[in-house]
Every structure is written in C-alpha cells, then in structure tokens.
Design brief:
By secondary structure, the chain is mainly α. Helices cover 74% and strands 0% of the residues. The protein has one domain: Cytochrome c/b562 (Four Helix Bundle (Hemerythrin (Met), subunit A)). The chain contains 6 helices and no strands.
Length: 152
C-alpha cells in the first residue's frame, strides 16, 4: 500500500511541476508586448538625452544622470521577449533576429556597453563627454534598428 501511495505521490508531483511550468511560460503575444513596452520606455528616457546632445533642449546634468540610470535598468528588459516562439507574432522584428542570433546578441551587448559608459560619463560632469556618449548610444540603438527592425 505504501508503494502505491508513494508512486501516486511521485506522479502527482511530476504532473504538478509540469503543469506549473506550462502555466509559467508567457504566451508569445505577451512576450512581444513586454519587449515593446521596454523599448518604448527606453525611447522615453533616451529622447530627452538626444535632444540635449543635439542642442535642442538645454543640458541638465541631473536629468542626464537620472535617465542614464533608468536606461541602465531598461537595457536588460526586452531581450527575453525575443523568444523564438514570437517569430510569427506580428511586430516590427525582422527575421534576422532569429536567423543571425550571434549578431543580434552582439547588438544587445553593444547597447548595454554604451549605456554603462553613459552612466559613468554622467557621473563625471564633463558635458562634452556626456554628449559624445549620448551620440554613441544613439548609434548603437540605430544600428540595431537598422539590422533587426522593419523600417518605420
């Protein structure tokens, strides 16, 4: 009797673990929405920095430092949303994301590296260095969009 109870318990545990794993996986549509939301927030906090670097907005070191900090968090959020299961979900993502994963990963790492450099520059107080780094970050964003996003 104990063996049957033990076997039934083991089967129930394995089944429960499998069910929880299946429920924990986000739907592809949800992953796309999450990555798009993270990218939208990146644009929100990068936009004023680009405006400052281009002289369209007055330079404000406190906003630069704050937005650089936000970008340092946001630059890590969208990437798990580029799951292969999202390949067929309508979005601006190009097939190159899945066809050239090493190149896509390199673009992610470049973005994160440029954001880290911006965080460091924003703490240094050199407006010229900060503006140059904002430009470098903009190029990293643009490069990724050029290669992995449909033209808007």
């Amino acid at each position: 009797m104990k063996r049957k109870l033990l076997a039934a318990t083991a089967v129930a545990c394995v089944g429960a673990a499998w069910a929880l794993d299946a429920l924990a996986q986000a739907k592809p549509e949800t992953l796309v929405k999450q990555r798009q939301a993270a990218m939208t927030l990146q644009g929100k906090y990068f936009g004023p920095l680009a405006g400052m670097a281009q002289g369209k907005l007055p330079y404000d070191a406190s906003i630069v430092q704050r937005n650089a900090g936000y970008l340092d968090v946001l630059d890590k959020l969208p990437w798990d949303g580029f799951d292969p299961r999202t390949r067929d979900v309508k979005s601006a993502a190009l097939p190159a994301i899945w066809n050239e994963p090493a190149k896509f990963r390199e673009a992610q790492e470049r973005l994160q590296s440029e954001v880290s450099r911006l965080v460091s520059a924003s703490k240094g107080g050199d407006e010229g260095a900060v503006k140059a780094q904002i430009g470098a970050l903009g190029k990293a964003c643009g490069n990724c969009h050029e290669n992995f996003r449909e033209k808007q």
